[in-house]
Specification:
By secondary structure, this protein is an alpha/beta fold. It contains ten helices and 13 strands. The chain has a single domain, classed as Vaccinia Virus protein VP39 (Rossmann fold, 3-Layer(aba) Sandwich), CATH 3.40.50.150. It has a seven-stranded mixed beta sheet, with helices on both faces. The structure holds zinc ion.
């Protein structure tokens, strides 16, 4: 399989959860050795992803406050670079992050593959979130900002999804991308056991460098980057760690020790493996 970023050849360097992890021999991009079906997005982001734990969420709706605060954090942080305008939040889920942007003056639309989550955003929060994959976006306008917060690593057809995102961005508009950094200290320390090596929901593992190369191919240039202030609730942290521990010796016993964590206690996420980048369309 050729690298979706630079088209160079790649090889499988290890397996995770039964899937080969490919490494590009030129740019170093990593991606899952997986031929995805057209139904991939619908299958992976079923209700189980938001309620079933594993690589997904044990209780997505229980993280409403944390996620709304996350949107607000970006809403404030972006004011250094651009004024609030129109935003398309890709992978909007139940709309909590988008709600945080709206709190900061943005006019938001969203798109979300899980129909129940999109219903929640529309019916409970009154947000315009359409149900579907980004590739099927029905957009009658372009936006000042397209946000891809923990979304880009999940695209089955990375290039097609980004082409749609580029078309939905106004001239001189922006992309805000938050994703995991495979070159971070945490990722290198955990190696093959890094929590983000969790196909088939995660399909791509970027670094800031490879993400910039990719964005440039769609006409976007870096404006700023940093690490988000991220919080996670106790139940979600426990669920993710226990899922990863299943594959290491004594992991299940170690995982049980985490049961003392209160479910809804907000915990700061301190590792260095998450980053955001703001890019502008040239
Ligand atoms: Zn490459």
């Amino acid at each position: 399989m050729l690298c979706p970023i630079c088209q160079h050849t790649s090889e499988v360097i290890f397996t995770a959860h039964g899937y080969g992890i490919r490494d590009c021999g030129s740019c170093g991009h990593r991606f899952a050795d997986l031929a995805t079906s057209p139904q991939h997005t619908q299958e992976v982001y079923g209700d189980q992803y938001f309620q079933g734990g594993g690589a997904g969420y044990p209780d997505y709706l229980g993280e409403a406050r944390i996620l709304r605060d996350h949107g607000r954090w970006y809403g404030k942080r972006l004011k250094r670079h651009l004024q609030p305008g129109t935003i398309l939040d890709v992978g909007a889920a139940a709309g909590f992050v988008l709600q945080g942007f709206v709190d900061c003056g943005w006019q938001g639309d969203g798109i979300e593959p899980n129909p129940k989550m999109a219903d929640y955003a529309r019916n409970e929060l009154g947000l315009k979130v359409q149900s579907g994959a980004l590739e099927s976006l029905q957009a009658d306008k372009a936006y000042d900002l397209v946000s891809l917060i923990q979304v880009i690593a999940h695209f089955a057809d990375l290039r097609q999804a980004l082409q749609v995102a580029a078309n939905a961005t106004k001239p001189s508009g922006y992309w805000l991308i938050e994703t995991w950094n495979k070159d971070s200290f945490a990722a290198r320390m955990f190696g093959q056991n890094w929590h983000e090596y969790s196909p088939p929901s995660v399909l791509h593992w970027f670094s800031p460098t490879t993400l910039k190369i990719l964005a440039t191919q769609f006409g976007f240039q870096e404006i700023a980057r940093g690490r988000p202030s991220k919080w996670i609730n106790g139940g979600h942290a426990k669920s993710l760690v226990q899922y990863k521990l299943q594959s290491v010796p004594f992991g299940q016993q170690a995982g049980k020790l985490l049961n003392v964590l209160p479910e809804y206690l907000p915990l700061p996420y301190l590792a260095d493996d998450l980053f955001w980048i703001l890019l502008q369309k040239k």
